[in-house]
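Worked example

This section walks through a single chain of length 282. The input is the sequence exactly as stored; nothing has been trimmed or padded.
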Amino acid sequence: MRFTKMNGAGNDFILINNMVEGLDHSVFPALARTLCHRRLSIGADGLMVVERPGAGGDYRMLFYNADGSAGEMCGNGARCICRYGFEHGLAGEAQTVETPSGIVTGRRIDRTNYRIRLTDPSVVRLHCPVEAQGRTWECAYVELGVPGLPHAAVAYPGLAERSMEDLRELGKALRWHSAFPKGANVNFYDITGPDRLVELTYERGVEDFTFACGTGTGATVTALTLLGKVSGEDVAVSVPGGLLRVTVERTGEAVKDLCLTGPTNTVCEGEVLDEAVAALLH
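Given that input, the structure is written out below as tokens.
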């Protein structure tokens, strides 16, 4: 089985082209758990699978978190898969990707940078305060696409000077908070200047912080734009893995277009020799 490893601003993925491999969908959860383990296999935040399109797109993207759970969509993954699609002849510089939560369109900016239009917000609650660790946290809740990918945007002043261990415990508490029936990706943010913020995301399915979360960045900037805290025009978001840029176009209080731009990196390509994977496939 061939694979490609990529990352988008440090959010890393293993990609399998199932139009070539022809694997049964039933193996993907176990395959994700096995391949994404950082000690025992290749290691990644998630597994992406390229499938044949079914609704007029160039191809279909399936996404599985490192714990094997199916994800609705992944923003950094979508940018990476758009690069893969272009470089492997599946689509041109502009492409249409089918995902479980809706259509994502992508465009090549240059060799490494890609811009995608994320799925539209389907749920927006701008004022959703939550209690954890003995205090109330300012929070907004946004779901992208249908079914919605859930994100909590949590204000955390002084985020750059945070204690990672304390923040990890808070992220875990909020990720499972009863206010979020589907669970939530928890995006801590701190506005550091006009249209600039820092962000750190505790991701469900990974159950830890990742270097970047594209949909989380888009959801956070959507909430802050609607709250009037950023302009929504080319907002720069600093994440541990680099810099992402988000533009939110709106009609009144409704979001019309939500676009994410950032870097991609092809790390390696090769053949999976993991004997645990071989046991899964036979």
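What to look for: The chain has a mean pLDDT of 96.
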